[in-house]
Amino acid sequence: MFSGTYNAFTMTPIGIVHSPFHEKFGIPRQPGLVPQVKGHIELLPPCNHADCVRGLEAFSHIWVLFLFHNTAGDGWRPTVRPPRLGGRKKVGVFASRSNFRPNPIGQSVVRLDDIDLSGGKVILNISGHDLLDQTPVLDIKPYLGYADCIADSRDGYAQAAPASLEVIFSADALAQCRELERTGSGDVVQLLRALLVQDPRPAFHKRRYPDKTYGMTFGDFDIKFEVSGNTLCVTRVITETGDDKR
Q1: Least crowded by CB within 10 Å, which of 68, 127, 155, 156?
Q2: Judgement on whether residues 104 and 135 belong to the same structural domain of the protein
């Protein structure tokens, strides 16, 4: 019979995320906002067995339950300031998707592109994710459209996707991106535009630092940009060592 108390318990990660996001800044605020973002989940022993994912390839999307490992030691707060409310109004932690939670667990729906079983590993290739590199994965479940998509849901203060910025490139940044594209990096301009259009700046920066130059990492590259009004201008695309790729 329920006694009113539960004992503490531990969880062992079943996988680890490999992502081009090596820091929190610049990560899309929700999954699915940037479909071009690729990554993969590597299953860990004893879950790195083909039997564990048998039949999963039939699903286009999966739920990923994960640990907010980068902030798990920072504690939690009963109220938070959601970016969607400009960082000014507080709501209860359970009325938000803040990473500062009593149990620092997150969940994301991501596209499952394919499953790679080669080399004795089990790799789930995913896209459209919002996951930090090295994120511990606690569980994976198939997404069920008939049950998980609620057509008449009420979305509180997040009725629609955030307002977007116009993203442009300086001549130098555009030349650097084109050089990267010539060396096999895909459509860098399209990817960066999709990533930055959501405005990665913290909400309070929009008020206090209207002319600040920002930098963010994405994969092996550092991106520099400035924001003026509703326009974001990418000014440089450099390697992590500072080498100009043009």
Answers
A1: 155
A2: yes
